[in-house]
Amino acid sequence: MNGRYPQDVATGAANSRRLRLFVTVAIIGVLAWLLLDALEQQIRNAEERAANMVLSQLRVALVIRGAEVMLSRGSSLDLQEGINPFELVKHQWANYKGTCQTQHPEPGNWCFHVTKQKETVNRPKGWLIYNPRQPITIDRRRNESDKPLAWKVTTEFADRNSNGQREQDERRTGLKLSPVSLTGEAPPTQDAPALVR
Q1: Which of 27, 58, 129, 174 sits at a 20 to 30 Å CA gap from 64?
Q2: What's the Rg (C-alpha) of the chain?
Q3: Are strands 96-99 and 172-180 parallel, antiparallel or unpaired?
Q4: Distance CA 154, CA 122 (A)
Q5: Which of 123, 112, 127 is nearest to 177 (CA)?
Q6: Structural contact between residues 112 and 84, judged by C-beta atoms closer than 8 angstroms
Q7: Which of 144 and 88 is assigned the larger pLDDT?
């Protein structure tokens, strides 16, 4: 019995070390998982803030451009619809790739999709596309994974009857970014119906 006792103690100590190692590895694994989850959430929040900041700066540039157009008697807000708002800001954006070369920009980038136009049009018209890296909420719009979001420069108007449609007697008041769908069809515009005589 004397010979077995030290061997049992050694086995018990080895089992105790294995148990402590297992518990330590499990705790480190749970902490690493929580850390990676928190890091992913912070990356998502940073991308949301960056995209919303870009949209805010573009909206400010459109307000200024709309005021300039309204003050100059020779121009019209109608001619500004569909312009590229990135051209109004004097900042070099690292994630703005210019005119879209493919259907959608790389994840995390912006581009300007040019629509087909007549040859007499002076500047390209189209809409902005942003392709998020992950599902995030931009401009109170939640995107699905691998689905970009788009906006078009449109005119704001004094909506007196609050129906969301511009009638002939409601005047234009400025420029804004309006969300559009990327389903392949022409983006909807808010315009007054033509008078038929």
Answers
A1: 129
A2: 29
A3: unpaired
A4: 17
A5: 127
A6: yes
A7: 88
Q: What is the mean pLDDT of residues 29-46?
A: 93
Q: How far is CA 53 from CA 34, 46, 48, 135, in A?
A: 28, 10, 8, 17
Please answer whether residues 171 and 157 qualify as being in contact, where contact means their C-beta atoms are separated by less than 8 angstroms. Answer: yes
- pLDDT at residue 10 in the model: 76
The angle at the Cα of 69, spanning 95 to 72, to the nearest 5 degrees, equals 145
Contacts of residue 174, Cβ cutoff 8 Å, sequence gap at least 6: 62, 63, 66, 67, 70, 77, 155, 156
Does residue 196 have a pLDDT over 80? Answer: no
Sign of CA dihedral 61, 55, 47, 189: negative
Residues 100-106, mean pLDDT to the nearest whole number: 85
